[in-house]
């Protein structure tokens, strides 16, 4: 248990929480938003998406 209290343990826990949280943001916000934009703008959004990389 003491290893979790060291600075290395804190870094590992912080990184794990950060990765988990970013995955949740993708699932809950980014993907549904992209689907809605594809539905709204159709091929125009698909072309835009193929030209522009993700920044998040």
Your description of this structure?
By secondary structure, the chain is mostly helical. It has one domain (17-56). Helices cover 86% and strands 0% of the residues. The protein has 3 helices and no strands. The protein has helices spanning 2-5, 7-41, 43-51. α2 (7-41) packs antiparallel against α3 (43-51). The protein is elongated and about 50 Å long. The chain starts with a helix and ends in a 5-residue tail after the last helix.
Please give a handful of descriptors for the protein shown:
56 residues; mainly alpha; elongated
Distance between the termini: 35 Å
> What overall form do the CA principal axes indicate?
elongated
Helix percentage:
over 70%
Number of strands: 0
Total of helices: 3
Percent of sequence in beta strands: under 5%
Radius of gyration: 18 Å
Low-confidence stretches: none
Number of domains: 1
Listing every helix as H and every strand as E from the N terminus to the C terminus, the arrangement reads HHH
Report the average pLDDT across residues: 86
What structural class do the secondary elements suggest?
mainly alpha
The largest pleated sheet is described as: none
Quick rundown:
This protein has 56 residues and is mainly α. The protein has helices spanning 2-5, 7-41, 43-51.
Topology of helices and strands:
Blueprint: H1 2-5, H2 7-41, H3 43-51
